[in-house]
Amino acid sequence: MHDDNLPSHETPEPDEQTGTGSGPDGHSRRDVLRTAGVTGAGLGLAAFGGTGAAHAAAEPDSAPTAASQAAAPARQGRTMVGVPFERRSTVRVGIIGLGNRGGSMIDLFLAMPGVRVVALCDPVKEKTARAAAKVTAAGQPAPATYTKGDHDFENLCTRGDLDFVYAATPWDRHFEMARTAMLNGKHVGVECPIALQLDQLWELVNLSERTRRHCMQLENCCYGRNEMRVLRMAHAGKFGQLLHGAGAYNHDLRGLMFDPDYYEGPWRRLWHTRLRGDLYPNHGFGPVANYMDVNRGDRVTHISSFGTPSLGLAEYRAAHMPKSDPSWKESYIESDRTISLVQTAKGRVIRLEHDVSTPHPYSRINQLGGTKGVFEDYPERIYIEPDHTDDAWGDFSTYADFDHWLWKEHANPPGGHGGMDYIMVYRLMQTMRLGLVPDFDVYDAATWTSPVPLSHLSIKAKGAPQEIPDFTRGEWSKRRTGVDSEKPAEE
Is 321:327 a contact under the CB 8 Å cutoff? Predict the structure, then answer.
C-alpha cells in the first residue's frame, strides 16, 4: 500500500502477496484454497481460542473465556530471551512470496553486506523469474527457485544452505511458513501478522524455544526515524514516568481492496467478512510497546475492544463496483473502526485503532505521554516540560540529537517507507552476522499480534476485557535491551 505522495514517515506499507491471476469468479485458485481453510494453518474461526476448521465466512458461535485463552502451556524448551544468533560471515537467505512486498524487499537484502539470497519461492513463475534476475544482476550466483504450487516452500525450508527464511505472503500462510522454517532448523522472519490464532502464537513460542531458532515479526515501523527517536527520548526520561500511548493502522484501503489487479484475488478484503476486531495491530502496537519496555520490565495484561458498524466497504462497493462483480456476494461484519484499550502490569494504557474501510488521511497516531509531556505524530509535534510552555506545541526536529545510531549512520537510507525497511533489514542482518541478540523475538511477535484474535473476542463480548497471555512465562519482569540498542563493534 505504497503511496509516494505521502510524507516519508507516513508512507504506508506494500501488502504481502505471492502472485496475481484469478479464476472466472475473480478468486485465485490459491485464494480459494486459503479462504476455504484447507491450507494447513488451522484457520477455522471456531478455533480462535483452540484448533479446528470451519467454513471461512462463519464466525465463532461462542467466544472462549479469557481465562482459557491466557493459560500458558507447559514450557517445552528453554527461554529464547537473550539468546544470540550464531555468528557467521555470510547470512544465506531464502525468500517466500515475491509479490508487492517480497518483490521489493529482495532489493534490500541484495544491498546488504555479507548477505546472499540463495533461494526464492512463489507459485507465480514470472514473479520468481523477475526476482531471480535481480539476484544475478547484483552479482550473486543464480538462486534456486521453487514454483511448484502452494507448498513448495516446504522444499525451500529443507535446504541445508539457508540461515534465514523471510516470508511475505498473505496472512493465512504466515503461521505454517514460520513453523516449517523452524522445524527445519532455520531462523525466520515474517511480515505482519505472524499468525491469526492464540494457539498458533503459543505454538510458535514453543517451537522457537524447542528448536532454538528465532521467530520474529518483522515490524518495520519499530525502525522509523520518529519512532526510534521517541524511544530513545523515553529511555532518557524526557517524558518522565510513562503513562499512556497510542498506535494505529488508519489507512483508506477501499480502492486497493476492490482493485482486481493489486491483490491476488480478494484475500485482504475477505477478512472483513470474518473478523470484527483489529486485523492489523502490529504497526501501531510494536513501537508503543517498545516505548514502554513491554516484555522488558512491563507486560500487557488485558485488552478491551469496541467496533463501529461495518458500512464503509458496502458503500464503496455500491458506488464503484458493477452488480456483476463477485464482491456483491460478500457480507461485511464489524468493524469499520476498531478501538482497543490495552492495560499493562504497571497500570499504563495503550490505545490501538484500526480502520481501512473509511475515507481519512493515513495515520499510525504514534503517541506517547508521561508526567513531563507528550509526543504526537501525524503531524509530528511535542510538548514536554521544561522545554515548552504556554500550551504551545514544540518543534520535534530540535530533538534530532536523540536519533538512534542507525539513523545517524544511515541518514538517507534507500528503499520504501522513508527508509525504515532498510534500517530494519540492515539491523537484522547485522545481528545475524555478528552473533548478537536480535532486537525483538518470538515473545514480541506473539504479544504484538495477540490483539487480532483477542479484539474479535472482546467485541463479540460487548467490550469485555480479554486476558493477554504472558508469552514470556515470567521473563517479562527482567530488564533487557531491545530496539534501543548500542552500536556494535564491527569486526
Answer: yes
- State the Cα–Cα distance between residues 270 and 257, nearest whole angstrom: 9
Gap between the Cα atoms of 160 and 176, Å rounded: 19
Alpha-carbon distance values, 387 to 243, 370, 412 (Å): 19, 14, 28
Q: Across-strand partners of 245?
A: 350, 368
Angle at 339 between CA 333 and CA 341, to 5 degrees: 135
Q: Do 357 and 313 touch, CB atoms closer than 8 A?
A: yes
For 350, which DSSP code?
Answer: E
State how far the Cα of 365 lies from the Cα of 279, in Å rounded to an integer. Answer: 17
Neighbours of 414 (CB within 10 A): 11
Residue with cell 521517541: 230
- In 189-246, where does DSSP find H-type helix? 198-211, 225-235
Q: How far apart are CA 147 and CA 128, in angstroms?
A: 7
Element (H, E) at 364: none
For 192, residues 6+ apart whose C-beta sits below 8 A from its C-beta are: 171, 217, 218, 219, 280, 282, 283, 449
- Coil vs helix vs strand at 233: helix
From the list 15, 21, 29, 25, the residue with the least C-alpha distance to 149 is 29
For β-strands 91-96 and 115-121, DSSP reports them as parallel
Q: What nine digits make up the cell of 218?
A: 518483522
Whether the bond between 260 and the residue before it is cis, its omega within 30 degrees of 0, is: no
pLDDT in tens, the chain (491 residues): 333 333 334 344 444 333 333 333 333 334 333 333 333 333 333 334 332 222 333 343 333 344 434 578 889 899 999 999 999 999 999 999 999 999 999 999 999 999 999 999 999 999 999 999 999 999 999 999 999 999 999 999 999 999 999 999 999 999 999 999 999 999 999 999 999 999 999 999 999 999 999 999 999 999 999 999 999 999 999 999 999 999 999 999 999 999 998 888 899 999 999 999 999 999 999 999 999 999 999 999 999 999 999 999 999 999 999 999 999 999 999 899 999 999 999 999 999 999 999 999 999 999 999 999 999 999 999 999 999 999 999 999 999 999 999 999 998 999 888 899 999 999 999 999 999 999 999 999 999 999 999 999 999 999 999 999 999 999 999 999 999 999 998 75
Backbone angles phi, psi at 302, to 5 degrees: -145, 155
250: Cβ contacts below 8 Å, ≥ 6 apart: 337, 353, 354, 355, 356, 360, 362, 363, 364, 365
Q: What residues have CB less than 8 Å from 170, skipping those under 6 apart?
A: 16, 17, 18, 31, 34, 264, 267, 268
- Whether 264 and 99 have beta carbons less than 8 Å apart is answered as yes
